[in-house]
Specification:
Blueprint (H helix, E strand, L loop, with lengths): L1 H25 L6 H6 L8 H9 L3 H7 L1 H20 L7 H17 L14
Length: 124
């Protein structure tokens, strides 16, 4: 089972590296199908650009691409650091899971309301 996990991890890393070089060489990126067909920003719009900005250590721009996922990513790493230090596993209960789901849905709605354009991914 561990060998299968390691193989999957290797394939994921190879895919990320290949996509990174394709993106650099040809300026090709993954389009959001929801935005493409509805012209509405989904809660995930801007995630790919956010990760590229993080790789460039441009955290301000990464936050502007997708503030919710950026904050959730920081929270995730803080939880993992806490788990490493305390050796205790944190498990989301159903209330926390549903709360996160509601926050993501609200973010998806709010970023499409006029006057709240600062929640939309920035355009370069």
């Amino acid at each position: 089972m561990n060998k299968l996990k390691n193989n999957n991890l290797i394939l994921i890393i190879i895919g990320i590296v290949a996509y990174y070089f394709i993106h650099l060489l040809f300026d090709v990126s993954i389009p959001c199908p929801i935005y493409k067909f509805t012209h509405l920003y989904c809660p995930g719009c801007g995630i790919t650009r956010m990760f590229w900005a993080i790789l460039r250590l441009d955290f301000y721009q990464a936050f502007r691409y997708n503030p919710l996922v950026f904050i959730l990513l920081i929270g995730y790493f803080l939880v993992k650091i806490y788990e490493l230090i305390t050796k205790k596993k944190i498990i989301l209960n159903s209330f926390m899971t549903y709360t996160l789901l509601v926050i993501v849905i609200l973010f998806g709605i709010l970023r499409n309301i006029p006057g709240l354009e600062f929640l939309q991914p920035t355009v370069i």
